[in-house]
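PROTEIN SPECIFICATION:
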Amino acid sequence: MMKRCRVGYALFLLLAVCTTNLGAESVCPPVATVPTRAQLHEAALRARDRGVLWRFERDGRHGYLYGTLHIGKLEWAMPGRAVGQALRETEIIAMELDPTDPSVAKAMNAPQSAQDTPAVPSQLWRRLRALATNACVPWENLQAMPPMMIGTTLEILEPRWDGLDVGYGNEVILAGLAKVSGKEVAVLETVATQRAALLGGSPAEQLARLERIVSGLETGKSRKSTALFAETWANADLGRLERYREWCECDTPDDRADLEQLAFARNPGLAAGIEDLHRTGRRVFVAIGILHMVGDKAVPKLLAARGFKVERVAFDVP
């Protein structure tokens, strides 16, 4: 799961396009579908708070900061009491990028310049194609993407085997709630920022990261760690999330460097964006990936350093 933050929210819409619904085939992973009214009713009845929520305050105004998961299950989709109340109190829902904006997805997946594109060996291309076949994703829908984006797409599709789908991710759900409730959706980053995090580094460095992604998918390591991370998030266990290096099997020097580039290095910009929105005088509900909320550079800590009072919101015990 540590590498899940490779994908910005802009990719979510694309995944719905590049995934073929072959759910009737037992060799393919299940695919998220539009829930029926009965399923939504059942999800609402079983709704409880998941993830981690903070309340921040400065200048006599408050807002909320929510640590999200980019994948999810239908039964996790409905907000519980505390998250629902926070959403009702706020006027703006802020995310890294808007998952409902197709132009963002298009820009995220635009080809790289020739000088920045890694030269992928033919053997690695074959391994990527085999993973695409296993995921039931037509290769022609992937091959024009930058190589790192192909790997990232396959990585975020892998958890579907465990019922975890981007179609039920927090950001997709929150964007839908914003439209239904008439709330404004604001973005904290640009496509350029997220592409720099994902595709940054020399071609050789990108190729090394791609090899690590492919190996993690082939060995099942990625799927195992993602499932464990998702359950920890669903149980709102911030303490265990903070100690992820003890159990994630992702504490090599390469893994630490990846996480620094892909998540932690972006946190100062995210904190600055939150402060700018707060200055508008409107209450904001900020939803960003949970990995931005852990470690020495965690966004709650950066907000506190900017003069905000930041407190975790307690959830009801299930």
